[in-house]
Predict the structure.
Amino acid sequence: MKVEEESPRIDVETAVLSMTEDQVGESDAKSASTVFEVSQLNVYYGDFCALRDVNLDVTQSEVTAFIGPSGCGKSTFLRCFNRMNDLIETARVEGQVRYHGVDLYQSEVDAVEVRRRIGMVFQKPNPFPKSIYDNIAFGPRIAGAKKSELDDIVERSLQRAALWDEVRDRLSDPAYGLSGGQQQRLCIARAIAVEPDVVLMDEPCSALDPIATARIEELIAELKTDYTIVIVTHNMQQAARISDRTAFFSVQVTDAGRRTGELVELGATEHIFTNPDDPRTEAYITGRVG
Ligand SMILES: Nc1ncnc2c1ncn2[C@@H]1O[C@H](COP(=O)(O)OP(=O)(O)OP(=O)(O)O)[C@@H](O)[C@H]1O
Ligand SMILES: [Mg+2]
């Protein structure tokens, strides 16, 4: 693999390759396993500061959970990791989100490529109005996969999302005919069909019953061997069950009465749920506020 020394590190692909080269002979284990480094991040909607001064790392092949009261900026923050906030006209991001060392908000970085590498699953399952097969094949087709490869990609992705056995005989049926839990697994299969590096999930189980939720949780535990997962959840038991590290966000009410979100603490999930450093975390997880 040849990486040109002079080339500016603006292309995510090149940068990821560069990282691998650079790490030869370097014994910085932290940077090798750090997928995202967020520093001094502020997010505004117009002149409203929704999130202030967030500093946080996300580690490879781990599940990182974001918890905190409604409106504290969890979804806003999650969207910063794949530049989904670009799609909101009033949103403005300050500070840095480095992905394998590359600042995702440099103007030269291609947001579409960023979203391919960093996929997203939303709260409400949102299959396309197409067949099960075409939902999965959609991204790979755009990425240039050959027709002969698609069957394999579709099967592999559905297998990975633990849905194959339930849909193998009805691949040409509309995706809307699936149950909510199946639709959410379809959306996970669609997200992983383009072989991302990271999967962001914003309350992926909140519209699902306990059985479907348990299936998605099992799936997340499986997927983390291959993907880095960042998940927003309102369900603290879920965060405790599935995540390796948990970040607790809260809201600070400014003098002007605006409610700005901030990161209170990030730590090993067990630590956050049993012995948090900050009294605000303790109050939230014990149900005294929030
Ligand atoms: N598109 C937008 N335009 C303006 N303000 C927004 C927009 N999206 C979110 N906000 C505001 O930013 C703040 C953070 O919202 P966000 O949706 O990130 O919170 P959240 O922690 O995900 O909440 P919830 O748990 O209810 O999903 C809130 O005050 C919200 O009203
Ligand atoms: Mg939200």
Notes: The chain has one domain: 21-285.
